[in-house]
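Hi R.,

As promised on Friday, here is the backbone we talked about, encoded as structure tokens. Could you run it through your design pipeline when you get a chance and send me back a sequence?
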């Protein structure tokens, strides 16, 4: 029972990060992408604050994701593997997203929008949980 309460607390943490995003993170692109208008003016921003904010958000999302993964599977080795996968996805998508910002999204509005999702949302968690469930099932068979 405690295990599922911790899983629930992890999901509440992820929901809180999303729900409070405009209050606790510096991200001038929130309004830009919420407008869903490709002709919207590209917002002014401060690189250092923006990068720190994305790293902080990534850290919070990773923390809550790892709590969820560890609570579900109760396997430290798998939790470490999940961390490596999350870091790998971030290491690939974050520089691409920063390039898109530097290019003022001329590379593609929708491409930038979806790459941004991997940077600011815990999408990797949605991929890891089914993979690990399948893995657990294969080990038990």
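Update: got your reply. Pasting your designed sequence below so it's all in one thread:
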């Amino acid at each position: 029972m405690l295990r599922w309460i911790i899983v629930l607390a992890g999901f509440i943490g992820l929901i809180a990060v999303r729900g409070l995003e405009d209050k606790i993170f510096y991200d001038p692109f929130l309004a830009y992408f919420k407008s869903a208008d490709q002709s919207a003016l590209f917002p002014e921003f401060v690189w250092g604050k923006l990068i720190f904010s994305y790293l902080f958000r990534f850290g919070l999302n990773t923390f809550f994701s790892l709590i969820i993964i560890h609570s579900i599977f109760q396997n430290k080795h798998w939790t470490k593997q999940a961390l490596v996968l999350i870091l790998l996805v971030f290491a690939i998508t974050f520089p691409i997203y920063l390039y898109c910002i530097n290019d003022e999204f001329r590379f593609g509005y929708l491409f930038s929008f979806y790459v941004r999702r991997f940077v600011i949302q815990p999408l990797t968690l949605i991929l890891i949980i089914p993979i690990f469930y399948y893995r657990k099932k294969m080990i038990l068979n």
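One thing I noticed while checking it: The first helix runs from residue 2 to 19.

Thanks again,
M.
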